[in-house]
């Protein structure tokens, strides 16, 4: 007689609630982002920078109010003079990855970019970029990206620039 393997315990809570960030969230976003910055997946930012740019962020929280992920979106003029959006500081806490939180954050950011009148959304990733590719992003020539944002990219990180048209 064989013994059945125990089934892993599944979380029975809603995946996440999305909400805009406020300056009071800066320390939590800084703590969430820190390990990703140390790994080279995100740029290092101070809690003060997160507080200053809080209006750019959408947060994902678990039903218990724990920060599960974040993404920031800012508008810039692209190299052709049109309005573009840039996604940055996109991360999901390791214990919450694979639960749809990244996709929910990305969909919210794309909807906000469209509502703001952006025709394209750019991002840079040092990772595989699979989530972005599944959501319609493709590799982009850096020269098409907003000049101000492009100048802030660190070549040492080996990031790839991706773009997604919105119209």
Shape: globular
* Order of secondary-structure elements: EHHEEEHEHEHE
| Distance separating the two termini | 61 Å
Q: Count the DSSP helices.
A: 5
Count every beta strand, where a strand is a DSSP E run of 2 or more residues: 7
Instruction: Note the main sheet.
Output: 7 strands, mixed
Structural class: alpha+beta
Summarize the model shown.
The protein is α+β, with helices and mostly antiparallel strands. It has 5 helices and 7 strands. It has helices at residues 26-38, 47-52, 101-115, 130-134, 147-152, and strands spanning 17-20, 57-61, 67-77, 83-92, 120-125, 138-139, 160-165.
Characterization of this structure:
There is one protein chain. With 167 residues, the protein is an alpha+beta fold. It has five helices and seven strands; from the N terminus they run βααβββαβαβαβ. It has a seven-stranded mixed sheet, sandwiched between helices. The longest helix is centred in the middle third of the chain and has 15 residues, at 101-115. The radius of gyration is 17 Å and the shape is globular. Residues 7-13 have low confidence and may be disordered.
